[in-house]
């Protein structure tokens, strides 16, 4: 964590509009001028973001500002209309040959996604499988791991999120906080190099938020690169290396937490923080 | 206030006079009367020929007919379900060609009555003696280029010797069932939360894996009950294959005995008994299937029950203290 904090780019990368930017090698996520529209509604209007490997970026901002959409663009759950997204130096969703972009085949997109973990607001655990089977499913089906091996790893991961005794339990029998922790274990089972969190605590009862945040803090301490869309300002202040404030489809302000949260420069950031703090 | 309530003794349990339901007793009386009248009609009317029914209901041709009907039901449903799953996946495919083709199939086979399909398939042999695969319109294309005898057929088989009787009836029922099952499976797949597909994709699963491992198993919970209905409907519709004609089928056999002996009505009653018995067996099977595919969902029911017993246990504990 300490070496990530020394990272030299708390600022978003510079000139918007450049297209053939070669991805810097030390950036786990690099977004350059990302645009996305749903029909006539332009949700993202030029997002730039750089997340160095091993660091934690927290994305804050009002609802409908484009935070979640941007997060979903990072693993190509949403197709972007313009700009570029790189993960670990690799263009997401497209393959560049010469100056033409080719859409990736589903197989290659799936392969890219398998290296990016994602945790959803509504958990999205597979309700017909037990907690352990939820964690084992992707390693067995995608990586072709042997069941015994996947089972051992699943039990390790469940223990890591504090649910060692819940392996046989179906999601419907777990509390929201427990379900979200299983979801984190499920994402970790693919050994991702990047974890995306889409408002992981927004659907939880207040007293269950802490247990999920604790798991995430532990994960950040272990050196995982994380992009977290959240409303938990306290978490952002404590864990984030970079805080990004997104509103109206653009990055309004980005920087270390003691700058963006404690001394926001922009009016919009100030008014948002004054409402949530 | 709350601290005093916990110290106070639990008051005596309420023993109130329950509300009377005179309407229920009237209903019981009416239904008992009607049942008695119905039984009286069955037993005292000699036209039923119960002894004749008993003699014939398990006779070899009838039992064989029932077996044929059962076979037809099972085979038609298996083919229909497989076809339905394929059609439903095509119908929901982003590929427009596939989804329109599935739509067209469903439109046609759901629109044509099964009886008409049975007769049609029974007579296909008249229309086409041979079934051949190859380049379509080969004769016409040949003539276009001045070749009078142009053949581009890869292989062919004798249709009329293949598609008759049982096979024709089975095809008619199975193809029609495929259309209905497609709609049932589609409804089931659309009932699964899209977040499930997203979560699976985010883990790196590809579309076929997502369907097989995540979407279809969850859709089964929605698919099984109407499929049970379809199976029961199919068992009854097997009586239609008499028009193909398939003669060793249950209803035809019973009617045949009735026509031969002029005891038509008793054999109709025998048919009712047979169909009721067989659908009862199917209903038992459906119960177990439904139980199997509600895993993880029934869990909430179990949890609720546990809560209820725990809730009931708690005040009892206070009394003992």
Automatic annotation (TrEMBL), chain A:
**UniProt biased composition (Pro residues):** 10-24
Is Cell membrane among the key words of this record?
yes
Class of enzymatic activity (EC top level):
translocase
- Fetch the InterPro entries from UniProt: AAA+_ATPase, ABC_ATPase_HisP-typ, ABC_transporter-like_ATP-bd, ABC_transporter-like_CS, MetN_ABC_transporter-like, P-loop_NTPase
Q: What's the protein's topology in the membrane?
A: Peripheral membrane protein
Which terms are listed as keywords in the entry? Amino-acid transport, ATP-binding, Cell membrane, Membrane, Nucleotide-binding, Transport
Q: Where in the cell is it found?
A: Cell membrane
State its Enzyme Commission number(s). 7.4.2.1
The answer to whether the entry has keyword Electron transport is no
Q: Which GO terms describe its molecular function?
A: ATP binding; ATP hydrolysis activity; ATPase-coupled polar amino acid-transporter activity
Where is region (Disordered) located? 1-24
Its Gene Ontology cellular component terms are: plasma membrane
Q: Which reaction does it catalyse?
A: a polar amino acid(out) + ATP + H2O = a polar amino acid(in) + ADP + phosphate + H(+)
In this chain the ABC transporter domain maps to 29-273
Highest taxon of source: Bacteria
The text of the family note is: Belongs to the ABC transporter superfamily.
The protein depicted here goes by the name ABC-type polar-amino-acid transporter
Native organism is: Actinocatenispora rupis
Native organism taxonomy: Bacteria, Bacillati, Actinomycetota, Actinomycetes, Micromonosporales
């Amino acid at each position: 964590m300490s070496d990530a904090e020394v990272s030299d780019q708390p600022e978003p990368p510079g000139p918007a509009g450049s297209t053939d930017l070669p991805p810097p090698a030390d950036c786990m996520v690099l977004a350059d001028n990302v645009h996305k529209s749903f029909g006539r509604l332009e949700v993202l209007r030029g997002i730039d973001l750089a997340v160095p490997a091993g660091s934690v970026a927290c994305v804050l901002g009002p609802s409908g500002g484009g935070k979640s959409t941007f997060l979903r663009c990072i693993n190509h759950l949403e197709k972007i209309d313009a700009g570029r997204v790189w993960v670990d130096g690799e263009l997401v969703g497209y393959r560049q040959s010469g100056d033409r972009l080719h859409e990736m085949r589903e197989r290659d997109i799936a392969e890219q996604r398998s290296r990016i973990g994602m945790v959803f607001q509504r958990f999205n655990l597979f309700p017909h499988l037990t907690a352990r089977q939820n964690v084992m499913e992707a390693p067995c089906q995608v990586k072709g791991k042997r069941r015994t091996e996947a089972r051992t790893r699943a039990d390790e991961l469940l223990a890591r999120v504090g649910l060692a005794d819940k392996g046989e339990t179906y999601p419907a029998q777990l509390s929201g906080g427990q379900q979200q922790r299983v979801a984190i274990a499920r994402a970790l089972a693919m050994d991702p190099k990047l974890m995306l969190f889409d408002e992981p605590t927004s659907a939880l009862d207040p007293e269950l938020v802490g247990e999920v945040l604790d798991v995430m803090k532990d994960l950040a301490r272990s050196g995982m690169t994380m992009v977290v869309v959240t409303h938990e300002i306290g978490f952002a202040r404590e864990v984030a290396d970079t805080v990004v404030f997104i509103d109206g489809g653009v990055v309004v302000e980005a920087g270390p937490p003691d700058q963006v949260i404690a001394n926001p420069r922009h009016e919009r950031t100030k008014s948002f923080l004054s409402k949530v703090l | 206030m709350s601290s005093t309530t916990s110290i106070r003794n639990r008051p005596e349990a309420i023993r109130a006079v329950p509300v009377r339901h005179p309407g229920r007793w009237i209903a019981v009386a009416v239904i008992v009367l009607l049942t008695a009248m119905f039984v009286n009609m069955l037993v005292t009317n000699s036209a039923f020929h119960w002894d004749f029914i008993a003699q014939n209901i398990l006779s070899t041709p009838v039992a064989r007919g029932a077996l044929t009907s059962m076979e037809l039901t099972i085979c038609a449903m298996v083919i229909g379900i497989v076809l339905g799953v394929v059609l439903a996946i095509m119908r929901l495919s982003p590929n427009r060609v596939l989804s329109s083709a599935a739509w067209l199939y469903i439109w046609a086979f759901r629109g044509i009555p099964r009886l008409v399909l049975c007769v049609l398939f029974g007579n296909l042999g008249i229309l086409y003696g041979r079934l051949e695969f190859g380049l379509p319109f080969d004769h016409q294309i040949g003539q276009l280029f001045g070749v009078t005898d142009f053949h581009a057929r890869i292989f062919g088989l004798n249709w009329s010797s293949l598609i008759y009787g049982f096979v024709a009836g089975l095809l008619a029922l199975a193809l029609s069932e495929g259309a209905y099952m497609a709609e049932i499976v589609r409804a089931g797949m659309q009932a699964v939360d899209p977040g499930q597909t997203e979560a699976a994709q985010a883990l790196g699963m590809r579309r076929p894996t997502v369907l097989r491992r995540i979407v279809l198993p969850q859709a089964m919970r929605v698919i099984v009950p109407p499929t049970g209905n379809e199976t029961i409907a199919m068992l009854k519709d097997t009586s239609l294959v008499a028009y193909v004609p398939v003669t060793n089928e249950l209803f035809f056999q019973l009617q045949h005995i009735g026509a031969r002996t002029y005891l038509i009505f008793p054999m109709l009653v025998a048919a009712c008994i047979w169909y009721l018995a067989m659908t009862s067996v199917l209903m038992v099977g459906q119960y177990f299937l439904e139980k199997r595919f509600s895993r993880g969902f029934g869990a909430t029911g179990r949890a609720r029950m546990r809560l209820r017993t725990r809730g009931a246990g708690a005040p009892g504990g206070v009394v003992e203290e």
